[in-house]
Design brief:
By secondary structure, the protein is mainly alpha-helical. The chain has one domain.
Amino acid sequence: MDRSLKLSLASLGIRLALAGLFFYAGILKLLDPLAFQSQIDRFQLVPFWMAGLAAVVFPWMEIVSAAGLLTRRLRKGALAWFALMLLLFTAVILISWARGLDVDCGCFGATGGSANYPWYVTRNSLLMISVGLVIWLDRRVTRFP
């Protein structure tokens, strides 16, 4: 197996994992947008109406970006959206942690559970590394699967 094919397969595997994760997260949020709106509101960063807008928009951004990640033409844009969403989500988590709030991230639907900020930051950091790794791998491949 040549090097280019190995890199392509590695990129494909990471993209499939990222797409599956974000698609799953988006679907869970879409199933109960009012609960997700309440979850966003608990962060106390935006007015309730804006939390409602975010509760409708963010799940679709996750789903569309997940689909885009699997297409050659939309991959770069999807990776950029993933990076921006992860940066935003991490900033919200860090702000809430610094403010002493105990808010579950709502990443996979509203659970109403207790916050685990160190895990949220670690998970988001690993996801950002995965996004960066796909970008790095794709730049080294002569053809994309």
